[in-house]
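Handout, section B. The chain below has 270 residues.
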Amino acid sequence: MLNWFTQWREKRLLADLDDTTVKRWQMRIDQLPILSGLSPADQRQLIETGWRFLHQKRFTPVANANLTNENCIDICLQAALPVLTLGVDQYGHFHELLIYPEEFVSPRHYIDDNGIEHQGMEELSGEAWEQGPLLLTLTELSHSGQWDGFNLVIHELAHKLDIANGGIANGHPNLSPSLRQRWLSVFSEAFQAHCIAVEQAEVKGHWQGVWVDPYGAESEAEFFAVCVEAFFTDPISLHHGFNALYHLLAEHFNQHPLPRAPQWSPLPGA
């Protein structure tokens, strides 16, 4: 009975996706470069997946954020990209997105390597709570969607993919059995290599050889998020710096964004 009701609800939801709405969403796809190069069939699936996301989540403006319909569509389309073949259920059971106009202050609590507890405040542009909503800012949303390795929506939702597998963010999403064993070694080796590269870059003062956002050295959870972010927004860097990890992500997401990305040479003269 539940399966029948789910199918009926799904059919009714997609029936509301009329031609006028599809054209409006298509116009937003045309404004987001990372969605260029998707086939017409994939673009239609992207719209349908984003439409499901829109109707499963509550979008709440905070602190007088001027949240427009176009903002919501852009969020939904970028949210749909990682789960294009997996389905929005991969994001777990969070129900709300809190949209701030600009960076917000959030309390932080952590214990350092010496066992000392620290409490303070930190200015953030986005956050994914392990039990709770997703937080985004309109200022950073306006910079998302380019082929530049940065995407606030994909980064924070990568944390939700991570959290959905066991309730904590630790860099180990819900993978198929065929990928799990390889992931343990490939992901761990890539994370260690990234941490070493960032540490050396900080000492030398130049960042050649750091292929994804240095923030990924903070933890395995952050490394996973920046790698997913790079996979969809700068796959050339990820493919060059962490080839095996790129291909594991391609298997997991059942996507291969490298051919769609604007070509550039990661090494001078290559």
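Note. Residues 106 and 122 are 5 Å apart (CA to CA). Compare this with the example in section A.
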